[in-house]
Amino acid sequence: MEISYQIKYLKKRFPLRISRGTRDGQHNLFIQVTDNGLTGLGETSPGASEGAATAELAQESLVKFLANPHDLNAIFSTYDKAIEAKVAPCALAALDMALWDLKAKKARMPLYQMLGYKKPSKATSITIGIMSPEEVKERLPLILEQDAIRTLKVKLGNPAGIEADKAMYNEVLNYHKKYPIAIRVDANGGWSAKDAKHMMGWLAQRNCDYVEQPLKEGEEEDLPYLYKNRALPIFLDESCRFASNIPNWAHTVDGVNMKLMKCGGITGALRIIATANAFGLKTMIGCMGESSISIAAGVAVSGALDHIDLDSHLNLNPDPCTGAPLVDEVITPLEIAGHGGQFRTDL
Ligand SMILES: [Mg+2]
Question: Which residues hold Mg(2+) (predicted)?
């Protein structure tokens, strides 16, 4: 198999602010794996907590791993060897999704079908970064009217404190009177245990469905305190990277949010889905700053999940790739062989 790499800049339409900082764009790594005239495509959205802070470091991590011979047709054992060799999970995600794309292209099937999952039918949420009430007033009409989106994921955990969170959330809630919107909250670990308890009670009275990552990664010892008599379901994101993390927290949370960049791709996601189901947890898929290629790979497993948050490609200007269109609020797989993600040829 032949492997080639390419780094592309992805510029965001609107900068995204979360509890840890703001981003207006980034360089992603793209990988092409070619065998017998067919090419599988993969993508890394780099991140320090996903093992490689830059696209260059992600590429280095893969080049080093692939310098040794591996049977790339054996995807599960390639994944296990890469994890053992400490390949950055976000770099492995690109290789792994490219290998699954190639396998599905060889089988001439859409990847979601080859994996045995249903065609996704659940609406994606659109993420609203931390912003002032005035900014909410500018942004929300665009999302609700132009894009006709009805599920919002609101980022809280404002470093300015929970009063700033409440002011922003109240502004979002004003739109609930006009549109039948569903709202989830992601604190990205921006709350103390005490604030989290308070905010969960406050949000439960204000049309919020669940909260994601209320506590900082590493502060999971406070989860039992939050879980007991909780006013809202708790989902973990940063605290749950691989299927192997799930047994640690399964009895103190309601669900987990998987991301291909955290778990190392489709193979890691398959294991998270199986483990979460075994523990009776709800499942969700989210994304980092990914184009349509990586989002299309996520879509291949999303028919098996309870909540979908695959929206990063919709906030690119331009998205250099296609293959994960928004159709009636659902990020929908193309009915073509592979995961469906492709490079745009018109740019
Ligand atoms: Mg999250």
Answer: 186, 212, 237
The verdict on 293 and 308 lying in the same domain is yes
What are the CA-CA distances from residue 13 to residues 2, 109, 313, 337 (Å)? 34, 33, 10, 30
Distance 246 CA to ligand 1 centre (A): 16
Residues 234-260 have pLDDT tens digits of 999 999 999 999 999 999 999 999 999
Q: 186 labelled as ligand-binding?
A: yes
Q: Quote the number of domains for the chain.
A: 2
> What is the DSSP pairing of strand 255-258 with strand 282-285?
parallel
pLDDT of residue 53: 97
- Rounded to an integer, the average pLDDT of 90-107 is 98
CATH number at residue 22: 3.30.390.10
Q: 167 CA to middle of ligand 1, Å?
A: 21
For ligand 1, a single-atom ion, the residues with CB < 5 A are: 186, 212, 237
* Residues acting as catalytic residues: 155, 259
> Last residue of some domain: 60, 79, 108?
108
CATH code assigned at 281: 3.20.20.120
Whole-number Å distance, alpha carbon 105 to ligand 1 midpoint, is 31
Query: pTM surpassing 0.90?
Result: yes
Q: What is the domain range of residue 16?
A: 2-108
Same domain membership, residue 71 and residue 34: yes
If asked whether residues 171 and 99 sit together in one domain, one would say no
Q: Which two tokens stand for residue 108?
A: 């001439």
Flag whether 80 is marked binding: no
Angstrom distances, CA of residue 261 to CA of 132, 223, 248, 256, 286? 29, 24, 21, 15, 10
Give pLDDT, residue 251.
97
CA of 115 to the centre of ligand 1 (A): 25
Q: How far apart are CA 18 and CA 288, in angstroms?
A: 12
* Cis, peptide link before residue 141, omega less than 30° from 0: no
